[in-house]
Amino acid sequence: MARAKQRNVRKRICFSKKREANMTNETYMKHALMLAEKGRGRTSPNPVVGAVIVKDGQIIGEGWHQKCGENHAEINAFQNAQDRGESVEGAEMYVTLEPCSHYGRTPPCAKAIIEKKIKKTYIGLLDPNPLVAGRGVNMLKEAGIQVETGILESECRGINEIFLKYITKKRPFVVMKTAMTLDGKIAAHTGDSKWVSSEASRQMVQRMRNSLTGIMAGIGTVLADDPQLTCRLAGGRDPIRIIIDSHLTIPLDAKVLKDENYVIAATENCDLQKRRKLGERVLITRTKDDRVDLDHLMELLGERGIDSILLEGGGGLNEGALQAGIVDRVVTFISPKLIGGKDAKTPVEGRGFAAMSQAIQLKDVEIARSGEDLLVQGTLGQQAEE
Length: 386
What we know:
About 30% of the residues lie in helices and about 25% in strands. The protein is built from 11 helices and 16 strands. It has helices at about 1-35, 75-85, 110-115, 135-140, 155-160, 160-170, 200-210, 220-225, 270-280, 295-305, 315-325, and strands spanning about 50-55, 60-65, 90-95, 120-125, 145-150, 175-180, 215-220, 240-245, 260-265, 280-285, 285-290, 290, 310, 330-335, 360-370, 375-385. The longest helix has about 35 residues, at about 1-35.
């Protein structure tokens, strides 16, 4: 009986130590995830990646991928350790994405990990990039480095939803942003919409403009509001302006045409004279119902290296985007205001579905506060079924 009790105690101790180790691994990976977010909006079309180097239970180096074309997270972490005067030999590394194994704009990170004599590497997510796809892990293992994968895999996948879609499908990740009153209106019946959402929500939208590569709006929005569609954050980066204008009715003095950072999507049936004036900035797509084929447009934009788009359209463009199946995430700000009006516009116009069972169902839904507003967001799942 006494021996049985001793065995049970030993089992509990082993289980406790194993649980403590897993918690420690998650803690370091969470720190790497936090570092990765620092590169948001600057690494496109590369992923955001964070790396942490740990030795004797202490972080001795950390880094993140700061900008496309520059050092990857692992290299920056090594440099950080060197700046601290730390030796990384025999240390462990936590990295949110599988280290690259190929020569691109920078040398392979897996090779650097081997050369630095890292003892063990913890990886959050395997890289689906065909140039990597497990090769980084294999390179490390063949060099005798221990590798453990899947640490906070869901979180590591979440921070790179844009990269994961673009690298596998060569199409941009589309975020449909809307702001509406409590009774579902995006403007008064007069068209006035300043402002539906709170200041905090509008600042969040500016951060989205800063982090996503493109911003898309319809010609109706341009004609009604003449927006600039720029990022108004100090030191922010302006997204590429993408205007859906099937017949090229856009005024040549529109604010969105103030520089060359724009694309206008049109059809062959557009104004030829204006097309000649605007030149290569006009992107001709296939025609669907006498309008721009949004699905074909995503293919063309992907070929131009545009990996993500913030859709800030009116109800008509939003409806078209949902029908075309190009929307990946919906972000909606709900303001505690009531405005009424049967003619007031709603976030999604068009004919709509005939039955609730046909509704587009969001998944992985998150709900939070944004100033005075309620923020609801989620990814698009399959159509709901009764």
